[in-house]
Specification:
726 residues; mainly beta; Maltoporin, Chain A; 22-stranded antiparallel β-barrel; six-stranded mixed β-sheet; 66% strand
Length: 726
């Protein structure tokens, strides 16, 4: 009964927010339909690459010539506040917790394996990237760093048009992407799809660990690894205009992947008591799929064009299956038998949402209520080889089955005021979360109930033509996802084992940001932000001397204070030559217990992406860039190394504005890169080194086709489940 009352209170708050805003809006007359808003501040006069708006920054890929031959993961390096390191890990404001949307909506393409999908997605099919570091209250509170919204290439007008991109990247493999838009009368359709084959050649690995104490040990594990991956995706949006006041729209997205790989490793553990060793061969394979579908109904009002009422429904699911075969040989004082691991995990989600918008004079009010119902499942099996039977038998003590639900009730209210002197957008969001997880094999569970009230405010102050100050404050939270809650233990490397933690709680971080924008011949966007929070979920590693195993899991043990700066700069030196730079720098202080002792660490993270472009003539363009990433922390106990990645390109228009050919090379002087992660505790230090194939050559053919005349309408509100845990 207590839990029912908490859910009822949260839903009541959400409905009160919605009804209160609607009632206030209805008291205004219909002759106040016109809403005055500040025009967006642009940073470049001739098709600007960067635009600053009151609550987000936009990066226009179509204004950047590198989008014609690059994939989306590569172009993310040029988006403000976004960092992509040498191992292709994406961070927003130095944080790995964020949400990626497509066309303002959650998508199964980004929920399951965003990095692989972005690597397979041609940037030529994408219109722009919107980065929200101070998201308004209408967006769900999930994602400590903020929100990245990818807008696909759609000129929504009567007729049809599209883009086709075909590429070959060595040594990994080919890729293709396309976007298509069509409109006939009241019907509209937008499609974007693509895929790639990624064959990673054999590279080396090396794990080392030294321990101290009465019986010091040294672990040495050299090895090799190779893998191949296949990814594909399809996204659609449909629209039907019933009449001038009623509009239906929907979306349908699917994606799938198949992976395989093999690794071998030689392991030697040297201790004062003797030597333990073995050779291990790990053959792995995996499949995954995701699907989501949604329907939106938008009602407009004849007497008041500023008023909109939208009802939305969305269904989403994904599945991941992984299998590992572990074979041991050349054992020295190591009695363990061969084994294999199977892990089947998945999730489904249903969302119902209602949104209301009303404008009057210089004000706009938004309000909404939402319910999200989630189900999680995971079935992990550890199967040990039995020499007596010659079969693999399930080890129940090392296996685990997991079922869980998470229900979120939310409501929001946002007010926006626009005038020639300033623009302000403020709101509050209320979210009540109920999480129940049952770990069947261990007869344990996790049951959580919490209510969060999340404020946000953003202010735009134009000083004069081309100069603007921007100020924002927001709070964001991160709920633990299934991978971090699931207590199954990964034993693919017997000396390094990791598991989830069912006791993990949510994390809340506050953010204060100040920005300045200059828009003249030289364009400049500078933002300074201050973040602080407690109860961070950090990766904790401990060494067990009795088993000689390093165990890793996540715990809510940390607090953080961070000060950061992001700079985007563009300058047309001449009509033919331009230069630009996107840089992020942040100073962190982390504090928390390690091995029972309070530890405080401070560090600076840095990334920079300078680039230059030169138009030789109307058909030839050349350019160069270099990605610089500094050292990144991995929590209180370690860090990963940085990287420098130069590239050059040339593009030729074979048919003006229709067909172009591009050639590029990345890291021409460095064939391999070592990704090094160092972790230490009170009695151990370990270093993991993974060699990556760094040098790539890319050939890309881009074709534009079609002709359009009249815009396609789509609902202005829809489901934005940017709250799903990563």
């Amino acid at each position: 009964m207590k839990h029912i009352n908490q859910n009822f209170k949260a839903l009541l708050i959400a409905l009160l927010l919605l009804s209160g805003s609607a009632l206030m809006a209805q008291t205004k007359t219909a002759d106040t339909a016109k809403v005055n808003r500040l025009k967006e501040v642009t940073v470049k006069a001739d098709k600007p690459i960067i635009k600053q708006e009151v609550d987000h920054i936009t990066y226009d890929l179509q204004a950047d010539p590198e989008s014609k031959f690059s994939n989306m993961l590569e172009m993310m390096r040029k988006a403000p506040f976004v960092t992509v390191d040498g191992s292709d890990n994406i961070m927003l404001k130095g944080n790995a917790s964020y949400k990626i949307l497509i066309n303002g909506k959650p998508s199964s393409l980004m929920e399951r394996d965003a990095k692989s999908i972005l690597r397979s997605m041609s940037a030529s099919t994408i219109q722009r990237i919107e980065v929200y570091t101070t998201p308004p209250a209408k967006y769900d509170a999930e994602g400590l760093g903020g929100i990245i919204n990818i807008i696909t290439n759609k000129k929504l007008v009567d007729g049809y048009n599209g883009t086709l991109n075909i590429s070959e990247r060595t040594p990994t493999g080919p890729g293709a992407g396309t976007s298509f838009t069509a409109k006939a009368g009241k019907f509209g359709l937008s499609v974007f799809d693509g895929g790639n084959l990624t064959d990673n050649p054999t590279t080396t690995t090396l794990n080392t660990r030294t321990t101290t104490g009465a019986d010091p040990t040294t672990l040495y594990q050299p090895g090799n690894t190779r893998s191949d991956n296949k990814n594909g995706y399809l996204g659609t949006e449909l629209s039907y205009e019933i009449d001038s006041l009623n509009l239906l729209s929907g979306q349908f997205n699917i994606n799938g992947s198949r992976s395989g790989g093999f690794s071998d490793q030689h392991s030697v553990l040297t201790a004062t008591t003797g030597i333990t060793g073995y050779d291990i061969a790990n053959s792995n394979r995996g499949t995954g799929s995701g699907l989501d579908a949604g329907l939106n109904y938008q009602l407009s009002f004849k007497r008041d064009k500023t008023k909109l009422l939208t009802f939305s429904y969305r269904y989403f699911k994904y599945n991941n299956n992984a299998h590992n075969d572990i074979a041991l040989s050349n054992r020295i004082n190591y009695p363990a038998q061969d084994y294999n691991q199977d892990n089947e995990s998945g999730a489904s989600e249903q969302t119902v949402q209602v949104d209301f918008v009303k404008g009057f004079k210089q004000w706009t009010v938004e309000a909404g209520a939402k319910a999200i119902l989630r189900d999680y499942t995971s079935d992990f099996n550890y199967n040990r080889f039995d020499p007596g039977t010659g079969n693999f038998e399930r080890d129940t003590a090392l296996s685990n089955k997991f079922n869980g639900t998470q229900n979120i009730l939310a409501g929001y209210n946002t007010w926006r005021y626009s005038s020639k002197k300033f623009e302000v957008k403020a709101g509050v969001r209320v979210e009540h979360t109920t999480t129940d997880a049952d770990f069947i094999s261990t007869a344990s569970g996790a049951h959580q109930r919490y209510l969060d009230i999340i404020p946000s405010i953003a202010i735009n102050l134009p000083l004069n033509t081309g100069n603007t100050f921007n100020l924002g404050f927001s709070q964001r939270l991160k709920r633990p996802g299934i991978n971090k809650l699931n207590p199954f233990v990964d034993r693919s490397n017997p000396n390094f084992q990791s598991s989830g933690n069912p006791d993990l709680d949510r994390v809340t971080v506050s953010d204060l940001r100040l920005g300045y924008n200059l828009s003249k011949k030289a364009s400049l966007n500078v933002s300074v932000f201050y973040d602080f929070g407690k109860n961070l979920d950090l990766l904790v590693s401990t060494f067990d001397k009795s088993t000689n195993i390093t165990y890793s899991t996540y715990k809510n043990i940390g607090s953080v204070i961070g000060v950061g700066n992001a700079i985007s700069f563009n300058y047309p030196v001449t009509k033919q030559w331009s230069i630009s730079i996107n840089a992020n720098i942040m100073y962190f202080e982390l504090e928390g217990p390690v091995d029972g002792v309070l530890k405080k660490v401070s560090f600076v993270t840095f990334s920079s992406f300078p680039s230059t472009n030169y138009n030789i003539n109307d058909s030839w363009r050349v350019g160069a860039s270099v990605g610089i990433n500094g050292r990144n922390p991995t929590g209180l106990q370690g860090s990963s190394n940085g990287s420098v990645s130069p590239s050059v390109y040339a593009t030729k228009q074979l048919i003006k504005n229709k067909l172009s050919l591009s050639v590029s090379v990345s890291n021409p002087f460095t064939k391999y890169r070592d990704a090094i992660t160092q972790t230490s505790g009170s009695n151990f230090t370990q270093i993991v080194t993974n060699q990556n194939y760094f040098q790539t050559f890319n050939f890309s053919l881009n074709y534009n086709f079609g002709k359009l005349k009249e815009s396609i309408k789509k609902t202005k509100r829809g489901i934005n489940n940017d709250d799903g845990a990563r």
